[in-house]
Structure formats: structure tokens, C-alpha cells
Write a structure and sequence with these properties.
The complex is a heterodimer of chains A (about 280) and B (about 250). Chain A has 2 domains: about 220 residues, Rossmann fold (3-Layer(aba) Sandwich); about 45 residues, no CATH class. By secondary structure, chain A is an alpha/beta fold. Chain A contains 10 helices and 14 strands. Chain A starts with a strand and ends in a 6-residue tail after the last helix. Chain A is about 30% helix and about 30% strand. The model of chain B has no long low-confidence stretch (mean pLDDT about 85). Chain B is built from 13 helices and no strands. The two termini of chain B are about 30 Å apart. In chain B, α10 crosses α11. Chain B has one domain. The chains are: A alpha/beta (about 280), B mainly alpha (about 250).
């Protein structure tokens, strides 16, 4: 179990995270919050790039800072802005990182081609990465994070730069991988984690807001989300969520805390509704 | 908030870990270096450092060739100033190249062998290359006899290892974005400034220092440099704060 135990992180007088406690046991954990809410700080602490000002992060009961290379050996990390040596080929680059991860050469020789096929880069494995697109570089990033078959996979904005087809492939891949490991996925794109996350962690004002299943989180808005084609007829105070076109008319989706307005029909809340409503003062 | 309790299995693991740490002898610097060499290989340890190293060697050659002081009168001062140039600029340029690619820098800090450990290996390599260059510079200095050559060599090694130790000491203790530029300032303060300020007196002072003294300073500095390398290699909790604070 990976345990974030009462962790606070400050930079001088600025507090980036405050008194966070989360237990990661297995499956996909989606860290969902707007930019600037502290999720990258949390991710960096899990990846040993930053260390808590107070509290501790424990892996099987041991502090990850003290574990050092024994902890780093079992993590795979994809940073938010992933970079490569552009004068190398994907194969050379992955072999380089495999060496830094302490993999023996035979295991690396077996794993590298397998991962390049997995991320659909097998046909360009020996081509210099100079002219690779952002999506291709991102796929290299995903491949390198999986090199050492990590027990903890930490992905910071992993779908940035991927096209819709790649995004679906990525979700399927993460779903498959999460069966026997912890996957921590940081994103502000709701659809990335709506379908694959077993638990969704939301941060607000530098504190933990909730840590629940997607359905549990959606239930917090149960009976409060509605749709209408006649927004002008709604007299009650509402919070508009989104709009869409249907049969040439605009359908407005909104939250109303004071019961169902006459001109509206109740609908099932989704994660995006909760996200927009919870962070209404930070997004829109 | 309620504290999450450890499971019995986790408690057992923690006890096992504490016992294993208590019974295992810490690795020596040599063991660390050998393990890294075997696991990573020289090609990967010095990846992307050929260009910075060549530039640093060119800086050193340029510094010796373009020295404005007359070489026959300021031989020791020139050697003392030139000795750490390769090391200082190799460190500056390789570290600058690593930090330019911030995301890759971060990623390397999360691998089993972090960039700190790789940097320690490289620093040792650069100091050994600096020793070879100092010997070559001494040989090309046109000293009249072996004793004069060894005096000059011990002086240049003294300068090289003093700068190497102090550079690493500062870089390890202060985790700032531009700390890798600090060795250049140290070099200017130790090697260049005295020659510029005191001229002939500095040359005369360097000429009169007994070889035993310069050799002792060089040996002690090298030992301290190795101790700093060992600490750097074992460092587990260095933050990459300048990227995180973006």
C-alpha cells in the first residue's frame, strides 16, 4: 500500500498542499482538479522529486525518501512535459532509460521492442525522434514509464497531445495494466478518468476534497442536475453547467439546489457536472 | 483527520527493512561506482557530454594560449589558474545541458540511478581527465628539470582538487537553479584574481611553496572531493525544486 499520511507541502509562506491523507491500494486513481490546485505537487512528491514539509509518504510502511532506490525501482513516471533526446531513435532512448532504471541488458532487449509495438511505434523504432509529433513523443513517454514493469505507475497529464484514437487505446492500456498495480493518473480532462478510474481524488484549496468512486462522487449531485430547452422560464437560482444543440434548439444543463424547476427534467449527474460545479469559482 | 493504521503485513515489512538496514554494511564509493559502471555502462554514463567536454578542453587550451601575462615570468601562476579550467567548464556545460531539458532531468531523477549519481561518476571522470591535462600542460611548460616539473605539477593538482572539492561542496549544499555556475566564480577567486591583483608577488609566492605542502593540500582536497562524491551518490532526498515551482 502507498500511503500519503497527513502530508503538507509549503514553499516559504506559500502552502501548495495541506494535510493530505490518501491510501492507494490498487487500481486506477484519477487525480482530478483544475490547474494550480496542487495535483502536480502531489504527483512530484509520489515520484520523489519533492518531499513533504510535514507528514510522510509510506510504501508498505516505509518512508519513500528512506527507501531511495528501492522505491524508485518500482515506480514508472511520466512527467507533464515529457522530453527526449531528439538525436536518438526510440529504441536507443528506451535502452538508455532502461539502463538508468537498473534493468539488465537482456531484459531491456526483450522489453523495448515489446513496448514500442504496444504504443504503435514499432515501425519507427530506429528513426531519429527529431521529426516526431507531440503524440508520438507522448507515446514514447508512456512506453518508458512501463519499462521496469512498475508496481506504481504515476502519470501526469498522460493524454496531452494524443489524438482521440490514441486516447482510447491509452485508456484501454491503463485499464489492462491496473489489474495488478497502482496507477495514479493526474489530469484535468474528465473523460480521461471517467471510464477507467476506480477512485477519483479531487483537491480544492490545497486540501483533499474527496476520494471516492466515480459513481459515489456523482451521487453528491443526485437529484440536483436538470436539463431544459426553456432556460428563460426557470425562476429559481441555478448554476448552468453546459449547453448542447438538439433538434435546432439549445438544451441547457444546470444544477439547482432548490428542487426540480417546472420547465426542466432531472438527469443523471456525471463526473463533468460535479467537476464544473465543485470548481465553479475556478473554471468556466 | 483519522490516521490510517498500518496493516500487520506492512508492520512486518517495516521491521524487516529496519533490520536489513541495520545488518547491511553501506556500500563504499568504489562499490557504487563499479555497480553503476556495470549497470549503466560508460556510453550511457557520459551520454551527451562529449560536446561539453571538448568545449571545456578548448577553453583550457584557449586560456593557456591567450594568457596576457608573459609565460616565462608567470609560469606557475598560469598553471595554477589554468589547472581547473577543464573541470570547471565541463561541469558547468554538462549540467547546463542536462537542465535545459527540464522534463528529462526530472525523469532521470526518478530512475534507480538518479542524475545525482550519474553526475558524481562524471565529476570523477572530469577530475581524472583534468589531472591528465594538468600533466600535459606541465610537460609542455618547458621546465628545466624533473624537480621543477613536479613542483609545477603538484601546484596545478593542488589548484585542480581545491577547486573540484569546493565546487562540489557548494553544488551539493545549495540547491539553486544556477548553482552549477558557482564553480566558475570559485575558480576566478582562487586562480585568476590573485594573479591579477598581486602579479609578480603571486608568482613568487607560488614558486616558493614547498612541494610537500602543495602535494599535501592536493591529497587532502582530493580525499575531501571523494568524500563529497560519496555523499552525493548516497543522497536520496534532493528536491528538483526549480522545475516544481514553475
Amino acid at each position: 500500500m502507498l500511503l500519503v499520511d497527513r502530508v503538507t507541502k509549503t514553499y516559504g509562506s506559500f502552502t501548495a498542499l495541506e494535510d493530505i491523507t490518501i491510501a492507494f491500494t490498487g487500481g486506477v486513481y484519477g487525480l482530478l482538479s483544475p490547474n494550480g490546485s496542487g495535483k502536480t505537487t502531489l504527483i512530484k512528491m509520489l515520484a520523489t522529486l519533492l518531499f513533504p514539509t510535514s507528514g510522510s509518504i509510506l510504501w508498505d510502511g516505509m518512508d519513500i525518501g528512506r527507501l531511495g532506490e528501492r522505491y524508485r525501482e518500482i515506480i514508472g513516471y511520466l512527467p507533464q512535459h515529457f522530453g527526449v533526446y531528439k538525436n536518438q531513435s526510440p529504441r536507443q532512448f528506451l535502452h538508455y532509460l532502461a539502463a538508468l532504471k537498473g534493468m539488465d541488458r537482456a531484459a531491456a532487449a526483450r522489453k523495448v521492442p515489446e513496448l514500442l509495438e504496444l504504443v504503435s511505434l514499432g515501425n519507427v523504432k530506429d528513426v531519429k525522434m527529431r521529426k516526431f509529433s507531440g503524440g508520438m513523443i507522448q507515446r514514447i513517454g508512456i512506453a518508458q514509464a512501463l519499462l521496469n514493469d512498475p508496481r506504481i505507475l504515476i502519470l501526469d497529464e498522460p493524454t496531452a497531445g494524443l489524438d482521440p484514437k490514441e486516447r482510447v487505446r491509452f485508456r484501454n492500456l491503463i485499464s489492462e495494466l491496473s489489474k495488478d498495480r497502482i496507477v495514479i493518473l493526474s489530469t484535468h480532462i474528465v473523460s480521461d478518468i471517467e471510464t477507467i478510474a476506480n477512485r477519483v481524488i479531487m483537491l480544492k484549496d490545497r486540501r483533499l476534497l474527496c476520494n471516492d468512486s466515480p459513481s459515489g462522487i456523482c451521487r453528491t449531485l443526485g437529484g440536483k442536475v436538470f436539463e431544459t430547452r426553456e432556460m428563460d422560464a426557470i425562476g429559481q437560482p441555478v448554476f448552468p453547467l453546459s449547453q448542447r444543440q438538439e433538434d435546432g434548439r439549445t438544451v441547457v444543463r444546470f444544477v439547482c439546489e432548490t428542487g426540480c424547476p417546472a420547465a426542466a427534467r432531472p438527469v443523471e449527474p456525471n463526473l463533468e457536472d460535479v467537476f464544473l460545479y465543485v470548481y465553479r469559482d475556478q473554471v468556466m | 483527520m483519522k490516521r490510517t493504521e498500518l496493516t500487520p503485513h506492512e508492520k512486518d515489512q517495516a521491521i524487516e527493512y529496519i533490520l536489513s538496514k541495520g545488518l547491511t554494511r553501506p556500500k563504499s564509493l568504489w562499490r557504487h561506482l563499479v555497480d553503476m559502471y556495470r549497470a549503466i555502462g560508460l556510453r550511457h554514463l557520459f551520454l551527451d557530454t562529449v560536446q561539453p567536454a571538448l568545449m571545456a578542453a578548448a577553453f583550457m587550451a584557449g586560456f593557456v594560449a591567450l594568457n596576457p601575462l608573459p609565460p616565462e615570468q608567470y609560469r606557475h601562476a598560469a598553471l595554477f589558474a589554468a589547472a581547473p579550467v577543464f573541470f570547471i567548464f565541463a561541469v558547468l556545460l554538462t549540467e547546463a545541458a542536462e537542465r535545459r531539458n527540464g522534463a528529462l532531468y526530472e525523469l532521470k531523477m526518478t530512475c534507480k540511478y538518479t542524475l545525482l549519481q550519474i553526475t558524481a561518476f562524471r565529476l570523477l571522470g572530469f577530475s581524472l581527465a583534468g589531472t591528465v591535462l594538468c600533466t600535459l600542460a606541465g610537460l609542455s611548460g618547458g621546465f628545466p628539470d624533473v624537480h621543477a616539473f613536479f613542483r609545477a605539477l603538484s601546484l596545478s593538482l593542488c589548484s585542480l582538487f581545491l577547486c573540484s572539492f569546493q565546487s562540489l561542496f557548494v553544488m551539493r549544499r545549495f540547491n539553486r537553479k544556477w548553482i552549477h555556475a558557482a564553480p566558475v566564480l570559485l575558480w576566478a577567486a582562487i586562480g585568476v584574481l590573485p594573479a591579477w591583483l598581486f602579479g609578480r608577488q603571486w608568482e613568487s609566492f607560488l614558486t616558493r611553496i614547498p612541494v610537500a605542502v602543495t602535494l599535501t593540500i592536493a591529497a587532502v582536497s582530493f580525499a575531501l572531493f571523494l568524500r563529497e562524491l560519496k555523499t552525493l551518490i548516497r543522497m536520496q532526498t534532493r528536491e528538483v525544486a526549480w522545475h516544481a515551482a514553475r
